[in-house]
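Sequence in, structure out. Go.
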Amino acid sequence: MWFETTYRCPRCGSPLVYIERRGSAALRCPACGVRVWTDARTAARFASGGRLEWQRFMELLYAAYAYRLAMKA
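Output:
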């Protein structure tokens, strides 16, 4: 499963794409090709009552994405 998010790449401004497959989730910039991913165990930390707290989970992925870009600079 994948979909375009409202988050923007800090480098180029393109919308980031959320990708989920085989027990992992990722945020990727289709223009820059930069991505970060996490495994299902990390995602499970954001589950409460059998539901994933999407906003907090996406904030974590975006923070990791921004950190990765900063480290590449």
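Check: The longest helix spans residues 54-72. Helices lie at 40-44, 54-72.
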